[in-house]
Design goal:
Rossmann fold; 240 residues; globular; seven-stranded mixed β-sheet; 9 helices; alpha/beta
């Protein structure tokens, strides 16, 4: 399977361990993530028009050191899946999605007509995180319902083949381990946060239980209990 993620740091978080999990589980995958920090749908749209080499090119979870345009990345392979998302501070405000999202979806389909378009439901922040000041919401209780509404509309707008329920997975993880879900209050932690997300993507796209996949090449130390918890949450969230 060939997956292109047109995203930002949350896309990097979600795909850091995905290739390793797939390889450990005997699945072949190529995952390319296009990264600009905090990149919004509006900026993706502007990059589409300008064809600027604005993106850091991550392949199989690693930064290649290359800079590419959106067009170059899309035309570089015959993608099975293209995933996109909104930047987290604007994710709960529908007026930040259009007309950019529909135009991007149409562009993806013109360039790569065989690819299935997917939407990633990005997550809320740790309670009390200063980043809430960028969202227009005071806390998780306000932000999360607004995210759900916008994500449903986004998936409908692009005729998405499916949604990656990262919001729900991170909510479950936060309920279990609290602040350990994040590394700075909003990005996924380098261990259990990123691992839970990668297991979720694996379960979503391959329809397989991530439990016991054998992957252990983490960027930080992970206990077996944390590994098992991440796998359990991903499995339950994906409905495997």
């Amino acid at each position: 399977m060939k997956i292109l993620s047109v995203s930002n740091s949350f896309g990097v978080d979600a795909t850091r361990y995905l290739h390793g999990i797939c390889r450990a589980a005997g699945e072949r995958v190529k995952i390319v993530t296009l990264y600009i920090g905090g990149c919004s749908l509006a900026r993706h749209y502007r990059n589409m028009l300008s064809e600027e080499k604005a993106y850091d090119y991550y392949i199989n979870g690693m930064d290649s050191g290359l800079k590419v345009s959106l067009k170059e990345a899309i035309l570089s392979d015959e993608w099975d899946v293209i995933v996109t998302q909104q930047c987290s501070p604007r994710s709960g405000k529908w007026d930040s999605y259009e007309p950019y999202l529909a135009e991007l979806a149409a562009y993806f389909r013109r360039c790569c007509p065989k690819a299935a378009l997917w939407w990633q439901d990005t997550w809320s922040f740790e309670e009390g995180c200063p980043r809430f000041g960028l969202t227009g919401f005071a806390n998780r209780a306000e932000m999360i319902p607004a995210l759900r509404v916008c994500y449903e509309k986004a998936a409908e707008t692009v005729g998405a083949a499916g949604r990656i329920p990262a919001l729900e997975a991170m909510n479950r993880l936060y309920g279990a381990v609290g602040a350990e879900t994040y590394r700075d209050g909003f990005h996924a932690s380098l261990g259990i946060g990123r691992y839970t997300l990668a297991c979720l993507w694996f379960a979503t796209f391959f329809g397989k239980d991530p439990t016991g996949n054998g992957f252990r090449d983490f960027d930080v130390e992970m206990t077996e209990e944390a590994i098992a918890l991440g796998e359990k949450i991903a499995k339950e969230t994906a409905g495997i």
